[in-house]
Design brief:
The complex is a heterodimer. Chain A is built from six helices and 15 strands. Chain A is globular, with a radius of gyration of 21 Å. Chain A is an alpha/beta fold. In chain A, the strands form three sheets. In chain A, strands 11-10-9-12-8-1-6-7-13 form a nine-stranded mixed β-sheet, sandwiched between helices. A two-stranded antiparallel ribbon of chain A has the order 2-5. By secondary structure, chain B is an alpha/beta fold. Chain B has eight helices and 17 strands. In chain B, α7 links the parallel β15 and β16. The chains are: A alpha/beta, B alpha/beta. The interface between A and B is large, with 77 and 89 residues.
């Protein structure tokens, strides 16, 4: 089973965000593999271990995203594809999906996996859009994948504790729910092996797409507070004593 | 502006976020001097369509077909594409449910359009609709506008609008019209099978008046005992954000958020929880919210009544002690 996993590089979780227009200042902050995508990568590796084939890590973005592809290779992906694009943050979800779909269309694959959403833009549309653009069946928020006889049996998470089994033919696109598996760490051996693995570099321009935006992020800003938070200060003991006082006599909830 | 709301039902039961989105649509229509229609999809949806018609809408569309009895993304996309092409709305609105996330972006893409998903509000400025959504896990907000020609697609986060503000139909009832759609069995490539719940949960967090919830800040499973001691001193239940349950540190039934339980206790004490949207939608209705976090810019403080900026490993034992003392 040949699997393409779309991985995105996002600002590190604890990175202090400095807003610059409709994106952030990239200097001085760290980047990491989008956590929801790490579950998709892990699922791809497990499917390959069970059914054979290869895992291709695909990422779109500037030079720095190569590091995320290398991380995927160190964890066990067989090869990588980097679509170089310095202005990828300007792309809307449909535009980004069209670029990814054009690159995916050049490969032979049975399955395309994405994470549920990105921790930066958080649109959560890439997998569903890829299915539309590649004209493939899809399913999202997947918690279990059983592949047999050329088709998939999938456990899909619904809201409020409900689940549903669905059957899906191959090839297909799946968006993986975070928590479906325990992700592995790269081993030293894996990191060494990754150095010999191929990362094919293509540019967005070489895909020959004309992308018209369908939406525009006008500006990003720190949200205005809807509630006034009363901060309790002092040593932990003092703050705790003040809080108990407030909860007892002001909020009257304990 | 002609607005179409796609209401969501499963097995004849509404997803209540549909009514919140209908409120959003009514408010956008008021701002733009527009009209609102609502569509319900399925098989045998006459009663649901009649219920929608009691709301202040210009028209209700009943989108019925045998192949729409159970939700499939292919079935919904194929049917709704036809409805949108024939009724030509300017703006199509959805509640941002798991089901909508599963098909709406594809529906928009089939029409060559984009979707602004998971919005928390809108503004109408200078003849332009601006949608507000969160980014960077709720740390920032973003103003987003549509580019290019209608139809435009957007979804609203659960809880973004209040369903009790829904305006009833002034004349009693809006017309209900059948929207004929053509579907063939081969259009539908995935096959939905049974719906089920995992093992019945032993705790019902929705009934707990006091909740102590932990997030990533707890760092390691061995630290949970400290939070449990605090919950015990408070007389409350322990709960967690998704990453903690994903790690298996607490059972899934203790998870609060969009994929877990939605709670509204008297007191919600959030320890080391940053306040990502997915968590906040499950607890923002709590009467009193207390947040303890080392990052003073954590989004959880935006909805907290009381906040302590500090190390939870110092605050938890101090608070446990104070609570024990206060109970004498």
């Amino acid at each position: 089973m040949n699997i393409i996993v779309c991985v995105k590089q996002v600002p590190a979780k604890d990175a202090p965000l400095a807003i610059a227009g409709n994106w952030i200042k990239e200097a001085d902050i760290g980047f990491e593999l989008n956590e929801p995508d790490s579950y998709a990568l892990e699922e791809a590796l497990r499917l390959r271990e069970k059914h054979g084939g290869e895992v291709i890590a695909l990422s779109l973005g500037p030079e720095r995203v190569k590091q995320t592809i290398k991380e995927a290779l160190a964890k066990g992906a067989d090869r990588g594809i980097h679509i170089a694009d310095d202005n990828f943050a300007e792309l809307d979800p449909l535009g980004a999906a069209r670029v990814l779909a054009a690159a995916i269309g050049k490969e032979k694959y049975d399955l395309v996996l994405t994470g549920l959403q990105s921790d930066d833009h958080g649109f959560g549309q890439t997998g569903v859009l890829l299915a539309g653009l590649l004209n493939l069946p899809h399913a999202t928020i997947i918690m279990q994948i059983d592949a047999q006889d050329g088709k998939l049996k999938l456990k899909r998470e619904l809201e409020a504790g409900w689940f549903q089994w669905i059957e899906c033919p191959l090839p297909a696109v799946l968006s993986i729910q975070s928590g479906i598996n325990k992700v592995r760490y790269a081993t030293l051996k894996g990191i060494m092996a990754a150095k010999k693995k191929e990362i094919a570099a293509i540019t967005r321009e070489s895909l020959g797409l004309t992308i018209e935006p369908t939406q525009k992020i006008e500006r990003i800003y720190v949200p205005t507070k809807t509630k006034k938070t009363e901060f309790l200060t002092g040593t932990p003991k003092e703050a705790a004593a003040k809080l108990v006082e407030k909860l007892k006599f002001e909020a009257r909830v304990i | 502006m002609k607005i179409l709301v796609i209401a969501e039902q499963r097995n004849g039961k509404w997803n209540n976020a549909s009514f919140e989105t209908l409120v959003a649509a009514q408010q956008i229509a008021e701002a733009t001097s527009g009209t609102v229609s609502a569509a319900v999809i399925g098989k045998g949806v006459a009663a649901l369509a009649d219920e929608l018609a009691t709301k202040n809408v210009a028209e209700v569309l009943a989108v019925e077909h045998g192949l729409l009895e159970n939700y499939t993304p292919d079935g919904y996309c194929t049917a709704l594409k036809q409805v949108i092409e024939s009724t030509k709305p300017d703006l199509v609105l959805f509640p941002h449910t798991y089901q909508v996330r599963d098909f709406a972006p594809k529906l928009a893409a089939l029409l060559g359009k984009g979707m602004i998903g998971d919005c928390i509000g809108f503004r109408y400025e200078g003849a332009k609709l601006v949608f507000v959504r969160q980014m960077f896990q709720g740390k920032t907000a973003a103003d987003v506008t549509f580019a290019g020609a209608a139809p435009w697609f957007a979804s609203f986060q659960s809880g973004a609008f209040r369903a009790d503000l829904l305006v009833a139909h002034p004349g009693g009832k809006a017309p209900v019209n059948a929207a004929g759609v053509e579907l063939k069995p081969e259009d539908i490539r995935t096959k939905p099978l049974e719906l089920f719940k995992e093992a019945k949960s032993a705790v019902d967090l929705t009934q707990a008046p006091l909740i102590v919830a932990i997030g990533r800040g707890i760092k390691a499973p061995e630290n949970i005992a400290q939070a449990e001691a605090l919950a015990k001193a408070l007389g409350g239940e322990i709960a967690a954000s998704r990453p903690i349950c994903d790690e298996g540190w607490l059972p899934m039934e203790r998870q609060i958020g969009s994929s877990g339980q939605t709670v509204a206790p008297k007191l919600y004490l959030a320890l080391g929880i940053s306040g990502a949207i997915q968590h906040v939608v499950g607890m923002k209705g709590s009467r009193t919210i207390v947040a303890v976090n080392k990052d003073q810019n954590a989004p959880i403080f935006e909805i907290a009544d009381y906040g302590i900026v500090g190390d939870i490993f110092e605050v938890m034992p101090a608070l446990t002690e104070e609570l024990q003392k206060s109970k004498g």
